[in-house]
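Appendix B, record 7
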Amino acid sequence: MVASARIAIAHGQMVEGELEATMLTFSNGDADILVCTTIVESGLDIPRVNTIVIEDAQKFGLSQLYQLRGRVGRAGIQAHAWLLYPQQSSLTEKARQRLRALQEFSQLGSGYQLAVRDMEIRGVGNLLGAEQSGQMEAIGFDLYMEMLEESINEIRGQEIPQVDDTQVDLNLTAFIPADYIPDLDQKMSAYRAVAAAQTKADLMQTAVDWNDRYGSIPAAAQQLLNIMELKQLAKALGFSRIKPEGKQHVILETPMAEPAFKVLQENLPEHLRSRFVYIPGKITVRGLGMIKADDQLASLIDWLGKMQGALPSLTAVETGMTMKV
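Structure tokens (predicted):
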């Protein structure tokens, strides 16, 4: 003679108090069987439960099945999880893969392996968007992670480094002549105005002020303004020093990574790109040292100005100055 089983029923449509009372009835042993929806997949811990039967298991996700299976066997007794599903011929390929994975990874601590298999089955989707169904199964998890790491490293490399200042060591004559501003205090004030300029517009305004107050700007003073414009551009682009290398080339020293430089390089005219050669720690501008220093300065202002157009598309790092891009 078999004693009748006491059954408790729980589902998500029950009011909070009724649901709690049902679960307590089962937890306290006043009911032998709990018939429920997937409401029990998260957080239920009833050590005396040793068997779970899951109907239509093919309709559940792999993580759901793993969580449901984990509701039993939480004490020191043998537990069983029965997954019921139709004949194999009526299952989809992904459903068969999920059930096969749950059968394969049945040992303790297999949650990570199941998570990896789940991603391989259904894909991981768009990391930065709403799509949650990707094509990772086509390449496998390991290759996917390698490609993801490469992409992240490339994005990280697309940063303009912060430099405190840019040193320009071109062979140029740049100063305020004594016969242009004879008064020493006024000359020091003029130098401070140049040093304080943050944008090309600031330098242009300084030039207008000098012209109005002291007359036409001599070549050496104009060269000083041009050098400050080059320093502004170079600092915004992450170049810490500009100097000749031998008699043929000019060097742009920088802690910049190559992916960031490649983006800057794309803004140059095609015939100029090959002249800029990246080596970690510096960029060589080939052949620039063979022309006059004044022309070197003018060329660098022009070329770095074109590179500056790439800044909005890069992951910019604070440079400490406001540039009008």
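Remarks on this record: The radius of gyration is 36 Å. The chain has eleven helices and eleven strands.
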